[in-house]
Design brief:
The protein is mainly α. It has 24 helices and two strands. Strands 1-2 form a two-stranded antiparallel ribbon. α10 packs across α22. The chain is globular, with a radius of gyration of 22 Å.
Length: 503
């Protein structure tokens, strides 16, 4: 059965070609702001109707890997994350590009994206059953505590100004409450508009805050006569992968830690790579010997972000295959594709459809290799995107973002929401407010509220159960410790700055 599944991918020329096509299309969807891996799979799903189950699932898996990896291209070259999985990559990729190290940043991102996927594949193969058993025991109490722990990262992400960081984080939580409330479906902040009942889509928030706001700032700069730097030095020489063996070995611990975070958060349903890349980035900053360099353009942040978001792929597939529980919206589409092909995910999938499982393993390995090759061969072409004049590039980006927003639900409301969040991001940047806390608050807000209400319904309003359950209590304690450590670190660094200024 193992050989049957692997040979169905690796020994079938047509399947290899389709995996290659899926990887390339996924990269394109990932690198274009407004288009995502989820959209690529949704659009490609009809193409797989007449394919064999192993071939169809392999193509969709390749789209998943290519889509998550492709987001680093626009994150580094344009400071616009192509997918939510590459938000943290912007924080170091763009500064490196502006210093003339775009090739190095891309090389680091591509290699560690590949390694993150391979590590998660090994985890998927070796430790899938025990990890799935742990995840299935998590209830709403544990998920609420995890989101509280994750929200403490707002302090880390806003070390320059904690108050402003908390304000943007709370603003993200407020935006997450728009629409129908979980459990009782009460309408909140809809103002009589039916389109607001479903709330704001993460894609419109992400692209609006990061992409449209950049376009508005560039337009303002051009009108005021101030030239806003939206390009980077592209004349560079790159040897090998763009970084040395010494630099690679120095990032080994960071890579393993970030991969573990990505796999762990991937297993937990509903969290996904949009959170894992920011969490791993924050932890990398906390554990770094030179945290003051974070945000200035070093490879540590890119390694943490890109390793984690690609490792999340394998993590999301673990509960998908063994429990039938999708880890995020993209794997939910994979679940639908499996059922469409007559494959029922669950504990018996290895006995009943083992060849499909091993075909997914083979497709992940093959697609990762294709991703590595295609992105390195096309690296020079990707970097040359920066040579396009901003007055030509930015309108094109705006059109693509708008098309991507419209394609979510085929309604103009999402285009209006995109522009609205563009103005929100523009105003926040003008006031020097950090953007990552806003996204973190928005992503985690709905998860936190849903699990809080579920937990209180289960316990009949008794909040003590959050502390009497071991795993829930453990995450709350970690949240308190994280908060205390971060605040103390900020206090210590500010005292040091005052002492230096006094002397």
């Amino acid at each position: 059965m193992i050989l049957e599944g692997i040979s169905a991918v690796l020994l079938d020329p047509s399947c290899i070609i389709w995996v290659f096509i899926g990887t390339v299309v996924g990269i394109i969807f990932g690198c274009i702001p407004g288009l995502t891996a989820t959209m690529a799979i949704a659009m490609f799903l009809p193409v797989t109707y007449n394919m064999a189950s192993t071939q169809g699932i392999s193509v969709l898996t390749a789209l998943y890997i290519g889509g998550i990896s492709g987001g680093l291209i626009s994150a580094i070259l344009l400071n616009i994350p192509g997918t939510p999985a590459s938000i943290a990559t912007c924080l170091h990729g763009r500064p490196m590009a502006l210093k003339g190290e775009a090739g190095k940043a891309l090389g680091v991102g591509i290699v560690f994206s590949f390694l993150g996927t391979i590590i998660s594949l090994l985890a998927l193969i070796l430790i899938s059953p025990p990890l799935a058993e742990i995840a299935i025991k998590f209830g709403p109490f544990e998920y609420f505590s995890i989101t509280i722990f994750s929200l403490t990262l707002i302090i880390t992400l806003s070390s320059k100004n904690v108050v402003k960081g908390l304000m943007t984080g709370v603003l993200g939580l407020v935006f997450a409450t728009v629409g129908m409330a979980p459990i009782d479906s009460v309408q909140r902040y809809t103002f009589g508009n039916p389109a607001l009942k479903s709330g704001f889509d993460i894609l419109t928030v992400l692209v609006g805050v990061f992409a449209i706001s950049e376009i508005l700032l560039a337009a303002e700069a051009s009108r005021s006569g101030i030239k806003k730097d939206v390009s980077a030095i592209t004349d560079f020489k790159i040897k090998g992968f763009g970084f040395s063996i010494k630099e690679f070995t120095s990032q080994f611990v960071n890579m393993i830690r970030s991969a573990a975070i990505g796999i762990g958060l991937g297993i937990l349903p509903g969290i996904g790579s949009g959170t894992s890349n920011m969490l791993s980035y924050s932890i990398a900053q906390n554990q770094s010997k030179h945290p003051e360099k974070f945000g200035t353009g070093i490879i540590d942040g890119i390694v943490a972000s890109e390793t984690a978001n690609n490792a999340t792929i394998g993590g999301t597939i673990i509960p998908l295959l063994t429990l039938g529980i999708p880890g995020d919206s993209t794997s939910a589409l994979l679940l639908g594709a499996l059922i469409m092909k007559g494959v029922q995910p669950g504990p018996l999938i290895f006995q009943q459809n083992g060849q499909v499982v091993y075909a997914i393993y083979a497709a992940m390995a093959l697609s990762s290799l294709f991703m590595l090759i295609v992105m390195f061969i096309g690296m020079k072409g990707f970097v040359r995107i920066l040579k396009i004049p901003s007055h030509l590039l930015l309108p094109l980006v705006f059109v693509l973002c708008t098309v991507g927003a419209f394609g979510i639900n085929n309604r103009l409301f999402d285009c209006y929401a995109l522009i609205f969040f563009g103005f929100v991001g523009y105003l926040l940047q003008k006031g020097d407010y950090p953007m990552p806390p806003l996204i973190l608050g928005f992503v985690l807000g709905s998860i936190m509220e849903l699990n809080l209400r579920r937990a209180l319904s289960y316990s009949q309003g008794d909040i003590t159960e959050f502390f009497t359950r071991p795993m829930s209590c453990a995450f709350l304690v970690l949240a308190a410790l994280s908060l205390a450590i971060n605040i103390y670190g900020i206090y210590k660094s500010r005292r040091k700055e005052k002492a230096q200024s006094a002397t």
